[in-house]
């Protein structure tokens, strides 16, 4: 019987996560994404970075990371950024990425997080409730390389702020080339 599980990633999972990244992204993206994953695994933020892996019969086949944002506004809103998400090439289009995202949203909701942000394909992330309109309330730390794909979703009862909040992100994501 095939057994699929999703669980929090640990430091011992890093070699397996690297293998997922190698088959999930193009050769030119691999190096930057692998550096990001390694940095996120060592990030000492509060609240903490939360990474999940999907395993199939004990083999890591998917990975997603959620890192906290901070801001200096009077708004009490707490948030996270979803980045990166990867699924092994031979396990794509089987719902693994969707399961990782949904599990992450459930985890962050239980933790009392208000907003989840992502910079990615609107057609893909829109299926989970990410919207451009929500993201307009949250100004990323660097100019975006593409004019589309900055998306957000409120995952608590809180409302998006009326005035946009400029936020800071975890050190691993604080690199202009990632935006």
Structure, described:
- The structure is a single chain.
- The protein has helices at 14-24, 27-42, 96-110, 122-125, 132-135; strands at residues 4-8, 50-56, 59-71, 79-87, 115-119, 138-139, 150-154, 165-169.
- It has 179 residues and is of the alpha+beta class.
- The chain has one domain (4-178): 3-Layer(aba) Sandwich (Aminopeptidase).
- Strand 3 (59-71) and strand 4 form a beta hairpin.
- The radius of gyration is 16 Å and the shape is globular.
Rg for CA atoms: 16 Å
- For the record, the count of structural domains works out to 1
Number of strands: 8
Helix content: 25-40%
- Report mean pLDDT, rounded to a whole number: 92
Write the layout of secondary structure elements.
Layout: E1 4-8, H1 14-24, H2 27-42, E2 50-56, E3 59-71, E4 79-87, H3 96-110, E5 115-119, H4 122-125, H5 132-135, E6 138-139, E7 150-154, E8 165-169
Parallel strand pairs: 4-5, 6-8
Antiparallel strand pairs: 1-2, 2-3, 3-4, 3-8, 5-7
């Amino acid at each position: 019987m095939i057994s699929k599980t999703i669980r929090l990633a640990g430091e011992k999972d890093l070699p397996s996560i690297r293998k997922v990244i190698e088959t999930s992204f193009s050769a030119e993206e691999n190096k930057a994404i692998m550096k990001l994953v390694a940095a996120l695994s060592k990030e000492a933020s509060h609240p903490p970075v939360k990474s999940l892996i999907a395993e199939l019969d004990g083999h890591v086949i998917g990975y997603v990371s959620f890192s906290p944002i901070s801001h200096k506004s009077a708004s009490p809103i707490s948030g996270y950024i979803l980045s990166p998400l990867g699924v092994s090439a031979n396990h794509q289009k089987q719902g693994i990425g969707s399961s990782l995202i949904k599990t992450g949203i459930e985890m962050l909701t239980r933790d009392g997080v208000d907003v989840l942000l992502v910079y990615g394909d609107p057609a893909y992330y829109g299926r989970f409730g990410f919207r451009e309109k929500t993201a307009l309330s949250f100004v990323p730390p660097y100019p975006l390389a593409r004019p589309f794909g900055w998306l957000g979703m409120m995952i608590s009862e809180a409302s998006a702020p009326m005035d946009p909040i400029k936020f800071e992100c975890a050190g691993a994501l604080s690199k202009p080339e990632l935006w």
